[in-house]
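Training component of the fellowship. As part of building independent skills, the fellow (R.M.) carried out the full modelling exercise for a liganded target. The chosen ligand was magnesium ion. The inputs are recorded below so that the supervisory panel can assess the work.
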Amino acid sequence: MKKRVFSGIQPTGDIHIGNYLGAVQHWVATQAEYDSIFCIVDLHAITIPQDPKFLKAKIRETAGLLFAAGIDHKISTVFVQSHLSAHAELTWILNCFIPVGWMRRMTQFKEKSERQKEEVSTGLFDYPALMAADILLYNTDVVPVGEDQKQHVELARDVAQRFNSIYGETFKVPKAVIPQTGARIMGLDDPTQKMSKSEEQPGRTIYLLDSPDDIRAKIMKATTDSLREIRFDANRPGICNLLVIYELFTRQGREEIEARFEGKGYVDLKRELAEVVVENLSPLQSRYRELTADSDYIDSLLTEGALRIKPVAEKTLALVKDRIGLG
Ligand code: ATP
Ligand code: MG
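Fellow's submitted model of the complex:
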């Protein structure tokens, strides 16, 4: 039996190279090795305000980009979270087993609520419970995510263990897998902030569907420092971020990259990086256009994905209800 992978992506905006390098490309690379489930987490997206038309369109766009990036619907299951009611139902149940103190420690809530101030929803606070439900419904072994989601996966582990210790073995205890490099791609305008879908700062983020000219302009304007040497040095976050992006797209070793740019200037690095990113995204963009030429095709794959996976979610939910004595 293959181990199960589960991971999700929010349809909150345009998928960017941070999502791709930190998560999606690893999903693609390991999909044959695992029994993989990838979820477009629209219930998570509404934890911050969303325009209905925008949300519906972004769900399809996000799915289209996952397929264009190489997720194979014949091997992996891709579905929309709100198509299966078990996610919301298990979240309520888990809410009753998660101490508020655990939730208060979540740094993503602190960061996102800081930005939203008084608009913050209860749903945003509860986001990690919904994520735990997503993962635990499918007896997940492995959750490949970027570094920012590590704390949430740990909470999912903790709640699984807590529930199992009260009611006996019910949930599989999942494990986060975070890539060694690229787990936190930083903003081009400000290398102290991660690239993010929902934070639309000009020049921060390279989106997978950006035009070559936009990609070039953003990279050429990227914030660096006043030094000269081109080195992988974590103390120089701007230049290090550009080098990491170069490393991940070219798959060259760090020594080789440093040797290549020995004696060269930041402008040379930026020019070359821009072309590397343009070249890497171009085939993905063509595939995206092909896949979305027929507007119903992505919807049909999403319906098929939900149908395929529904029995697994329902079985777990029924077991949980039985353990607790509901109904
Ligand atoms: P949002 O701003 O709406 O939270 P996001 O860009 O953080 O959007 P998510 O949908 O929350 O994207 O996350 C999808 C996956 O991408 C997760 O595995 C997450 O850890 C990863 N990820 C998000 N941002 C980055 C980044 N800057 N670098 C590497 N991985 C990232
Ligand atoms: Mg996020």
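The panel noted the following from the submitted structure. The CA atoms of residues 12 and 50 lie 8 Å apart. The two ends are 33 Å apart (CA to CA).
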